[in-house]
Amino acid sequence: MSTTASTAMPTPSTKVADTRGLAGQTAGDTSICSVNQTQLIYRGYEIADLAAHATFEEVAFLLLVGNKPSAAELAAFKAEQGAMRAIPASVKADIVRICKESPASHPMSILRTGVSLLSHLDPECEDCSPAAELRKSKRLLAQIPSIMGACQQTLEGKSPVDPDPSVSHAANLLWCLTGKKPSDLAAHIMDVSLVLYAEHDFNASTFACRVIASTETDLHSAVCGGIGALKGPLHGGANEEAMEMLKEIDRDCAGGRMSTEEWMKRAFETKRKLMGFGHRVYKNGDHRAPILRKCGLQLAEQLGPTAKKWFDLGDEVQAIMLRDKAIHPNVDFPCGMTYFVMGVPVPQYTPIFVAARITGWCAHIMEQHASNRIIRPLAEYKGPALRQWND
Fold it and tell me: What is the CATH class of 33-232+352-370?
């Protein structure tokens, strides 16, 4: 008889995978987007290809409708979007009132409320048919910049401007936020950033949308859930936090009080979380980050040393993180610098994310409704053993 053990025992070095937060778990199928270490693909098209050759309107059509638009389809889509940008007077009045009465509210909370208000005035709100959901998706895409603009202009003590139906989604977004006509370069950079932010498979906010949609509730409710998820600093709010971190480094190091190296060393020693770095999926770098950095740097160099200093500081921080921690930046890091030199108020960074990601969210909501099964995972109980109330 053999004395060899019939079953292999686990070695002391065996490491159990940490699947909290569904890390590494596949939660469903999608034909909308693929994310891997080397590529980010929207319906078969790679992100660098789209950023270089497609406009945001073309990408929005691709995500929402499912195919690359023909010239005629694109022209019709753009005309349709321009005509739908204005929000109802009552919604604008409510946004203005809330911003005046609660000026400390985060613009993401205002945007969430604005989408909820729009739902009450949308005659197809409760209609979850494919055709109705596509129409609702287009309306939300067109109207979100108007909500953002009403919020920002009110917070600055100004009257909201009317949306411009004749310009691109990106240019209209900047116009609504600032009340100023953007330069061609600024509009192009915003357009590229919207393309980069439009979709990213089952990220937290998109998965939240799909979970909500899986109950067969309406599209507006699911989008409100997505906005709430995206607001968090570990998701959409990271671009705001990344820029605030750079501003803090700039203040602390002003006048030679300390070097960036010393600031970063202190951050490492105190285990401070540095926003804009690392990614759950991309371990070798976020494909979108260098694309947006290149665009933002182009504008900063055009604007001069005061603007370019933020990219110089960002490059220094990025180099230290890569050297000492082997952690790459994600797209939120160059986004913070890029929007800042464009003059976009920092609290509006995450709402801009929504102005792009609404396309991905709505595409996923429609996909979920088209082949639905309620999303209801199990939990592993770690609480007390069974006990009696009257013991």
Answer: mainly alpha
DSSP of 191-241, one letter per residue?
HHHHHHHS--SS-HHHHHHHHHHTTT--HHHHHHHHHHHHTSTTTTTHHHH
Q: Which listed residue (200, 220, 279, 369) is catalytic?
A: 279
What is the distance between the alpha carbons of residues 364 and 302, in angstroms, rounded to a whole number?
39
Nearest-Å Rg of the Cα atoms of the chain is 23
What phi, psi does 258 have (nearest 5°)? -160, 160
| pLDDT at position 284 | 76
Q: Is the model's pLDDT at 31 over the cut of 90?
A: yes
| pLDDT attached to residue 20 | 74
189: nearest Cα among 316, 82, 311 = 311
- Whether 33-232+352-370 shares its CATH topology with 238-341 is answered no
Look over the chain and give the mean of its residue pLDDT values, rounded to a whole number.
92
**Rounded Cα gap, residues 371 and 374, in angstroms:** 10
- Residue 369 falls in the annotated catalytic set: no
Of residues 106, 127, 164, 235, which has the active-site annotation? 235
For the cut 60, the answer to whether the pLDDT of residue 8 exceeds it is no
Which helix or strand (DSSP H or E) is residue 152 part of? helix 130-155
Q: Taking the domains of the chain in order of start, what are their residue ranges?
A: 33-232+352-370, 238-341
**The domain defined by 238-341 carries CATH number 1.10.230.10:** yes
**Which has more pLDDT, 208 or 235?**
208
Rounded-to-integer distance, Cα 219 and Cα 362, Å: 7
Question: Is residue 122 flagged as an active site residue?
Answer: no
pLDDT 10s digits, 124-178: 999 999 999 999 999 999 999 999 999 999 999 999 999 999 999 999 999 999 9
Residue 235 annotated to the active site:
yes
Phi, psi torsion values for 46, nearest 5 degrees: -75, 150
Across the beta sheet with 40-42, the strand order is 33-35, 40-42, 45-46
- For residues 356 and 115, give the distance between their C-alpha atoms in angstroms, rounded to a whole number: 15
Per-residue pLDDT for 356 more than 80? yes
| Burial class of residue 50 (count of CB atoms within 10 Å of its CB; 0-12, 13-18, 19+) | buried
Set 169, 332, 364, 369: catalytic member: 332
This model's pTM is above 0.85: yes
How many helices, marked H, and strands, marked E, lie in the chain?
16, 3
> What integer pLDDT is reported at residue 71 of this predicted model?
98
